[in-house]
Design goal:
Helices cover 37% and strands 17% of the residues. It is built from eleven helices and nine strands. A three-stranded antiparallel sheet has the order 1-4-5, with no helix packed on it. A three-stranded antiparallel sheet has the order 3-2-9.
C-alpha cells in the first residue's frame, strides 16, 4: 500500500536547498538521485494493462497536436489543441471504432491529472539530462501542486469539418489586421474576447511598444516544431503500419486533406487568413494591381531598429 508521504517527496522538495548549504559526497548525491527517481520512468519498469479494457479497445490510435502561444490580449499563453480519433488499428490490422459520444477517452478531471503527471515527468527528465533540475525543482513542485486546465469533448461535426477548422489555425499569426481598431498617440487599440465575461468582444488599448513586445513573444524560434503527429499519424509509425497492417476502409486525416481539390493557393490563403486581396486596388476596390517595376531589396537593418525610441 502506498503511503501518503514518501522519502522521495522530501528529496524532491528540499534536495536543492541541501545542495546549496551542504557539501555532499558523490555517493550521497547518487543515493539522493536514486531516491528522487523512485517510481518514475528513469528507473525503467514495465507497462500493464487491464484485460477487460484491452479487450474493449485493443487498438493503436494517434493524435495531431497544434501549439498556440497567445491569448486574446496577446499575452503569453502556451497551449495545445489536439485531434484524437475515436478509432484505431487493431493488432490484426483492422480499423475499429473505440467509443461513442466522446466517451472513449479519460474523464476530463482524470485526464488533467494524467496529463500533468506525464508532462512534468518528461520535463524533469529533460532537466536532469542537462544537470539543471536543482535550479528549477521548486518551480516543478509548484506546478505539481497547481490544478491544470485540460479539456476534451466529442466533435460537434464531421471529420472533414474538424480538419478544416484546425487547418485555419496551423499558420495563423497572433493577431490579424481586422482586429486592430486604431493606432494613435503612441497606443494601439484592438479587439479581444473577454472570456471572463461571456467571451464578449471588447477594445483593448496598449502602449505601442508593449503591443510589439507581446507580439514578438509569439515569433517561434527557427525550426521550432509547431505541429506534431503521434501514434498512427506519426510518419515513422505510418511507414511501419504499411508493412504490418492491411489498408483501412476509412480514410485518415491525410486522405481527407488531399481530397480538398484544387489545393489552396498562397493568394487564397492570404485572403482567408488576413481578409485582404493584394491583387485588388485598395482605392477603387474593383481594378486589379499589376507590377510595373521591381524594387531592389534593402539589406540594411529593419527600419524600426534605426528609429529613436519615443
Amino acid at each position: 500500500m502506498r503511503t501518503r508521504f514518501e522519502l522521495a517527496e522530501v528529496v524532491n522538495s528540499f534536495g536543492a536547498g541541501l545542495v546549496v548549504t551542504t557539501k555532499l559526497t558523490p555517493l550521497q548525491l547518487k543515493v539522493l538521485g536514486k531516491i528522487s527517481d523512485y517510481r518514475t520512468a528513469a528507473l525503467g519498469g514495465h507497462e500493464e494493462t487491464c484485460q477487460e479494457c484491452y479487450s474493449h479497445f485493443g487498438v493503436e490510435t494517434g493524435a495531431v497536436c497544434v501549439l498556440h502561444s497567445w491569448g486574446q490580449n496577446l499575452s503569453l499563453h502556451p497551449h495545445i489543441h489536439c485531434i484524437v480519433p475515436a478509432a484505431g488499428y487493431t493488432l490484426g490490422g483492422q480499423w475499429k471504432n473505440i467509443g461513442h459520444s466522446g466517451s472513449y477517452l479519460y474523464p476530463v478531471h482524470q485526464m488533467s491529472v494524467a496529463f500533468k503527471g506525464k508532462f512534468l515527468d518528461s520535463l524533469k527528465r529533460a532537466l536532469r539530462k542537462q544537470n539543471e533540475l536543482p535550479l528549477f525543482d521548486i518551480n516543478v513542485q509548484q506546478a505539481y501542486r497547481s490544478p491544470w486546465v485540460v479539456h476534451c469533448e466529442p466533435s460537434m461535426a464531421s471529420a472533414e469539418h474538424v480538419v478544416r477548422y484546425l487547418g485555419q489555425y496551423t499558420h495563423r499569426v497572433a493577431i490579424t489586421n481586422q482586429r486592430i481598431l486604431n493606432i494613435a498617440d503612441g497606443k494601439v487599440t484592438f479587439i479581444a474576447k473577454d472570456y471572463r465575461d461571456r467571451a464578449i468582444k471588447k477594445p483593448v488599448t496598449l502602449d505601442g511598444v508593449e503591443f510589439l513586445r507581446r507580439f514578438t513573444l509569439h515569433i517561434l524560434p527557427k525550426r521550432f516544431v509547431k505541429i506534431r503527429r503521434f501514434g498512427i499519424y506519426n510518419h515513422t509509425a505510418k511507414r511501419n503500419l504499411d508493412l504490418q497492417f492491411t489498408p483501412e476502409e476509412k480514410p485518415d486525416i491525410d486522405t481527407l486533406i488531399k481530397r480538398q481539390q484544387p489545393p489552396e493557393t498562397n493568394l487564397q490563403k492570404l485572403v482567408r487568413l488576413m481578409g485582404i486581396n493584394p491583387c485588388i486596388c485598395p482605392v477603387c476596390k474593383t481594378g486589379r494591381m499589376v507590377a510595373i517595376r521591381e524594387l531592389p531589396r534593402i539589406r540594411s537593418p529593419a527600419g524600426f531598429l534605426l528609429k529613436e525610441p519615443s
